[in-house]
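Handoff note, outgoing to incoming analyst
You'll be picking up this chain. Sequence as last confirmed:
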Amino acid sequence: MTSKTDEATGPADALGYEQARDELIEVVRRLETGGTTLEESLALWERGEELAKVCRRWLDGARARLDAALAGESAGDDVSVASDRAATERVDTTD
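Most recent structure output, in case you need it:
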């Protein structure tokens, strides 16, 4: 038996962050509301776990990209400071 959630959305890995998050919210709502059979609840739980992993991968990827960008800025600042020092030293030695 396939759950309604699985039929509507397909593989979780194909979802973007917002889609996975929104579906996860709906899964949690359905689990909290109750009224499902044990089998349906287990299928919802498993889908929720899958969706949570997708969200985590998206967030981890975003964190890595942000860290890389910040590291690049920091390296750029170091180069800029070194260039400024070299320019200052050249100016000082010409006096």
